[in-house]
Amino acid sequence: MKRSTFLILSITGVYSAVLHAAAWSVNNFLMTGPKAYLTYSSSVAAGAHSGMEECKFQFGWERWNCPESALQLSTHNRLRSATRETSFVHAISSAGVMYTLTRNCSMGDFESCGCDDSRNGRVGGRGWVWGGCSDNVEFGERISKLFVDALETGHDTRALINLHNNEVGRLAVKATMKRACKCHGVSGSCSIQTCWLQLAEFREIGNYLKIKYDQAHKLEMDKRRMRAGNSADSRGATAETFHHVHPTELVFLEDSPDYCTRNASLGHHGTEGRECLQTGKNLSQWEKRSCRRLCTECGLRVEERRTEVVSSCNCKFHWCCTVRCEQCRQLVAKHFCARRDTAATAPNHIRRRNKGHKR
Predict the structure, then answer these.
(1) Which first-to-last residue range defines the signal peptide (predicted)?
(2) Residue where a domain stops, chosen among 192, 225, 256
């Protein structure tokens, strides 16, 4: 019981530090638990933070843009929801923790962890064998599971959904791993190769999970059996639902709210005041449509504002050995979502409705 309490408080402390952007110290990290776990605490905090930063990147031009409150709303017992967005938050934060623990293990930051050499010496394919120093994802998976899954102490449907989505994040780290190889042979003939597995860039994991988010499945629970009061019947309904869920697919329980409008109690800021893109180099189709999605379809208008940007320019190299630059000022046009005149608002509000998981 003592160990379980430590794990729960540990991950809560880590997430609180990430949410409030406070200075976090290992020395302040619940010293009552086993000292072995203190070794990993800073990696867990950094991993959760990197997961949320990736979440902000992936949803940067969407109505729901992974606000600071997203992690708290997905884990706090009284506030938590089970929407499509919550499923992504659980997956990406879980992946971030596992990824950071695995990477730090490979960098030699932990005495208790080393390379995964379990396959070394085996023939992997024609002309290559397993060898080298593979990233130890089994270690990262095991430790991250202890920390992240400790938050879910209940046995209700939401807890099971969160645990499932946590696992989807960890499986994403494994699914995106790359094989790296080194040639051997006389005069670089590469007659044989030694290969090992290494982590992909975390951005790749974010992209992978974003696709899973778009393809997420809504669970249709048997409400009558859930409300029957018979715990065995309720567990049976839940087990039947999860029986058809693939381990790598994100799942959710509730439809997404209307992210166009502000809802302070749920931590949704709405899209008023958000920046959108109309012009620029190498914009994706999703970015090009951001003004329509964030502003127009939410009953807002696109407002252009001229902003002065200061940047370094006319840089020259001086012997030896400095680079001197001038400060150039430039007026740049940026676009933001602004409220329409009262008279022009009504038709747009009629058109604006929450359709599925539009974000």
Answers:
(1) 1-16
(2) 256
168 and 70 share one domain: yes
Tell me the CATH number at 281: 3.30.2460.20
CA distance 217 to 220: 9
- As a dihedral over the C-alpha atoms of residue 22, residue 28, residue 33, residue 37, rounded to 10 degrees, the angle is 60
Contact 234, 228 (CB under 8 A): yes
Instruction: Indicate whether this model's pTM tops 0.70.
Output: yes
**Residue numbers of the domain that contains 46:** 2-112+138-175+203-256
| Each residue's pLDDT tens digit, 246-292 | 899 999 998 998 999 998 777 788 999 999 998 777 888 888 899 99
